[in-house]
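hiii, so i know i said id send this last week but things got crazy w the move. better late than never?? heres the sequnce for the chain we talked about at the cafe, plus the structure i predicted for it. fair warning i was half asleep when i ran it
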Amino acid sequence: MSATGSMMTLRPWTSLDFALTFAMWTVMMVGMMVPSATPTALIYAAVARKAALQGAVLAPTIIFVSGYVAVWTVFSLLATVIQWGLEWAALLSPMMASTSPSLGATLLVGAGVYQLTPMKAACLRHCRAPAQFISQHWRPGRAGAFHMGIIHGAYCLGCCWILMGLLFLGGVMNLLWIAGITITVLAEKVLPFGNWGGRIAGSAAIAVGVAVLVG
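okay and structure toks below
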């Protein structure tokens, strides 16, 4: 089953199918995750402007953002492989949503449980404190800026990777579902009580997933 046509049929993927699906995931991840990294990128840009006024030259902000995007590009490759496996197992619909209640419930429970873990909390703390992140992880030069972007992307990945798995629940091609997950990720990172909102959402996901499994 391929993402290259409006009517998808079960068939082996070609190299073009894989490349197009990988491109789709990459564009989608950039669109979903870069907005949540904007506060950190803006602080980096402010530091760069201040340094320029003092006669110093720092790497452009785009270098920092490129490091962040690189992390999500690697994740997109993994997501493409997972999608290939799910389609091979006939577990996805033409909209790339789970056709298995058990798989959908497992995704919900898994996402909900991870929302409550110490690792999620630790990664989210870094994402919610952009100024502190910049001060703790500052590296000079272009390589340093790119490295900072990778570190920030890694924390963001640790915070949100399981939420991206929920795309297979509501549909990778479902724009409303994509928007909902994007808003959830952004709210967790920027709203005053976003961390608690994520925990509440996680508990709700567990309850719904368990209900589906036992029902």
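btw The chain has one domain: 15-214. thought thatd interest u
miss u guys!!
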